[in-house]
Each structure stands twice: as structure tokens, then as C-alpha cells.
């Protein structure tokens, strides 16, 4: 299965991606996680990407597209993948389509997680992440079992630098201007399926499975 998760920052894409990738045994590819890993390793890509992430702006399309193409060319993506946070512009979506086309492939489903705007600020300012495995927690809504430790790898969890109120505002603007047009782009292809992202994490996962059931046997 080749799936894209779409939705505003804070919709719960990363949280659901962990469950979906396990349920369907497909790799979870988060461009945000890839950038953050490169930033912490201080690679040339990380140094370039950092200024964009800090401001809540998008890393340039060409840079991002090349990273995703490389990742999708790895063996574990042969039978499917789950893209989280990519594409974020129509240009990226077109590049992805032509890359997949060239390999006689296509996206099976774009799962749109819809969430009321008023939930987003609380979700994002309370978010904590594991810098090692990318797992996403929330101080109130989804705390780790041990205080400030990742359930999966026991690392210290941290607050993202771009999860402050003012950067969140900028990221929502970026989403509305640059990413939301993708909804129509994929509607025209007839591959979009929308689920409600409010409610318990588990409840959202049930909705995701119901939607994905339409494309997997
Ligand atoms: P995204 O990847 O779309 O930016 P995340 O999965 O990181 O979103 O979720 C954003 C924040 O909201 C995290 O702190 C996460 O723990 C929390 N969260 C995710 N899903 C829910 C939910 N259904 N209810 C409450 N909080 C949630
Ligand atoms: P969120 O969980 O809030 O949706 P991500 O972790 O997906 O955030 O992305 C964090 C940041 O990484 C973005 O604000 C942007 O700077 C950069 N980024 C991630 N994916 C892309 C992409 N597809 N194109 C450009 N920039 C990206
Ligand atoms: Zn972890």
C-alpha cells in the first residue's frame, strides 16, 4: 500500500503513522523527522534545513524532493510506504507522481486528517517528541508511561523548537497557502479519503483503518 497522510500541523499525522505503519507493515517516512535528524547530526542538509524549520517555513522543493526520491528507492519501500509530511506543495505532489509513474506505480490513498483549528494550538504547544525515534507525545493528552522518557527507546523526550505559539501561527499560514491546495489536487485523482481527527487517539486510528480497508484486502 502506498499511502500519504495529509493534514495541518498538529492533526495527529505522526501519531497515527506509527500505528498505521505497524498495522500494515509499511515504512513510515516523515520528512520532518529526516530534517530533524540531519539538524541534530549537523550534516550539510541539516545546516541548510535548520533556518527553514526554525521559522516554520518550507524547505525548498528541490531539496525535499531529492530526499524523498532517495528514500523511496530503498528496498523496504518496494511493497509500500506511508508518507507523513510529504508532499506539502503541488510541485512536490507532481514530482512524486512522475517519480512513481516512471516506475509504473501510483499512490493508493491520501488519508486526510481533518481537525478543528481550535484544537491545534493546545495539541502543538503540549507536544513532546523523542529525538531518537520520532515518537510524538503530549503532556496532557498522551503522556509517556515514565515522566519525560520515550516509551519505545527510553530516551529523554523534548519540546520542538518550532512548537511555540508564534511559529505555529506561521506554520498554519504556510499550510493554508501551500499545502491545502493538495486536497483538490488529490480529489481530482479520486484518491482522497477524509477522516475526523478529533477524539481519542485510538478512535482516530479506528477511523483510519476503516478508510484504509477500502484499499487493502
Ligand atoms: P502532526 O504529525 O500531524 O503534526 P502529531 O501526531 O505530532 O501531529 O500530534 C500533535 C500533538 O497532538 C502531539 O502532542 C500528539 O500527542 C497529540 N495528539 C495526536 N492525536 C491526538 C488526539 N487524537 N487527541 C489528542 N491529542 C492528540
Ligand atoms: P508537523 O508535524 O507540524 O506537520 P513536520 O515534522 O512534518 O511538522 O515538519 C516540520 C518542518 O519540516 C516543517 O515546518 C518544514 O520546515 C519542514 N518540512 C517537513 N516536510 C516538508 C516538506 N515536504 N517540504 C518542505 N518542508 C518540509
Ligand atoms: Zn523514542
TrEMBL record:
Catalytic activity from the UniProt record? AMP + ATP = 2 ADP
Task: Read off the CDD domains from this record.
Answer: ADK
Q: Where in the cell is it found?
A: Cytoplasm
Which annotated residues bind ATP? 10-15, 127, 136-137, 199
**E.C. numbers:** 2.7.4.3
Q: What InterPro entries would the database entry show?
A: Adenyl_kin_sub, Adenylat/UMP-CMP_kin, Adenylat_kinase_CS, Adenylate_kinase_lid-dom, P-loop_NTPase
Per the record, which residues fall in region LID? 126-163
User: What PROSITE patterns does the database record attribute to this sequence?
Assistant: ADENYLATE_KINASE
| This protein's domain notes | Consists of three domains, a large central CORE domain and two small peripheral domains, NMPbind and LID, which undergo movements during catalysis. The LID domain closes over the site of phosphoryl transfer upon ATP binding. Assembling and dissambling the active center during each catalytic cycle provides an effective means to prevent ATP hydrolysis. Some bacteria have evolved a zinc-coordinating structure that stabilizes the LID domain.
Any idea what job this protein has? Catalyzes the reversible transfer of the terminal phosphate group between ATP and AMP. Plays an important role in cellular energy homeostasis and in adenine nucleotide metabolism.
What family does the database annotate?
Belongs to the adenylate kinase family.
| Subunit structure and binding partners | Monomer.
Q: What is this protein called?
A: Adenylate kinase
Origin species: Clostridium kluyveri
Amino acid at each position: 500500500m502506498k499511502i500519504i497522510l495529509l493534514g495541518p500541523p498538529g492533526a495527529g499525522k505522526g501519531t497515527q503513522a506509527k500505528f498505521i505503519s505497524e498495522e500494515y507493515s509499511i515504512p513510515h517516512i516523515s520528512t520532518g523527522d529526516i530534517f530533524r535528524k540531519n539538524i541534530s547530526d549537523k550534516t550539510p542538509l541539516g545546516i541548510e534545513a535548520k533556518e527553514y524549520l526554525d521559522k516554520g517555513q518550507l524547505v525548498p522543493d528541490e531539496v525535499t524532493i531529492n530526499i524523498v526520491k532517495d528514500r523511496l528507492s530503498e528496498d523496504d519501500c518496494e511493497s509500500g510506504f506511508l508518507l507523513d509530511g510529504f508532499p506539502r506543495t503541488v510541485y512536490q505532489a507532481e514530482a512524486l507522481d512522475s517519480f512513481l509513474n516512471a516506475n509504473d506505480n501510483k499512490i493508493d490513498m491520501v488519508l486526510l486528517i481533518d481537525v478543528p483549528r481550535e484544537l491545534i494550538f493546545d495539541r502543538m504547544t503540549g507536544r513532546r517528541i523523542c529525538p531518537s525515534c520520532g515518537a510524538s507525545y503530549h503532556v496532557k493528552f498522551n503522556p509517556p508511561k515514565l515522566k519525560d522518557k520515550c516509551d519505545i527507546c527510553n530516551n529523554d523526550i523534548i519540546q520542538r523548537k518550532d512548537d511555540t505559539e508564534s511559529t505555529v501561527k506561521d506554520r498554519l499560514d504556510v499550510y493554508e497557502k501551500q499545502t491545502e491546495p493538495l486536497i483538490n489536487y488529490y480529489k481530482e485523482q479520486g484518491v482522497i479519503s477524509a477522516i475526523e481527527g478529533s477524539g481519542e487517539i485510538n478512535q482516530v486510528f479506528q477511523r483510519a483503518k476503516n478508510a484504509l480497508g477500502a484499499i487493502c484486502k
